[in-house]
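Dear support,

I submitted the protein below through the web form. The confirmation email said the job was done, but the results page showed an empty box. After a refresh the structure appeared. I'm attaching both so you can tell me whether what I see now is the final result or a partial one.
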Amino acid sequence: MKNVVLDKWLKINSTMNEEMKALYSNLCFTNPECKSIGLISSGENEGKTFLALELMKQFSNDDKTVCLLDCDLRKSKIHRRYTTQFDERPQGVSEYLQGAASLDDILYKTDLKGADIIFAGKTTRNGVNLFNKKNFTDLMTYLKSKYDMVIVDLPPINLVIDGAIAASKTDGVLFVINSAVTNQRNAVLAKKQLERCKVKILGAVLNFVKKSGGSYYYHGYYSSYYQSTTKKHKH
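What the results page shows now:
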């Protein structure tokens, strides 16, 4: 298995670290049956990739085995941040689903204890067809049997349908909302799209909440079910 360095990039302050611990604890306590969790948002730059990486770190710190699966096949932030370590673009989800790579080809061991990662691979606009393939369902089933948790970084749901299709293969999703940019209409549209695809919404995370001192932090709240949040927050 090939190796990739993540930990030196995952540096957050003590306040954020405590917020992440609280999010992790709430998530595990309220959803003990979940083996795969998707991180999804209505649009770009809402913080879902950050949360996916930090949740992976929390599972690792808790001595759990975890695999992060990057399913943002069109515009992966994980790819841009971490694959500069390699001489060639690493193969990933897109190559695997097209039958051009094996699981051994795409699975990378990270420097976090018990944590592996699968990159998105080659950029493609064919995500809908790929995520509808049986081998994606089979991949999710296998990873859930191998790891304590599978974390899936999903494409923004209001931009492409890929995210909803991939999300439907998880046990549930955390809906990530950027308080500075996400308005009520977009949040409601995203929620309805998830419901149409019968995706279980485990909770919601409000990002970039401005504190009285003028600084921002990541995790405004965690709700056990995203039902009334769009009524509470109007931007």
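Response: this is the final, complete result; the empty box was a page-load delay. DSSP finds ten helices and ten strands in the chain.
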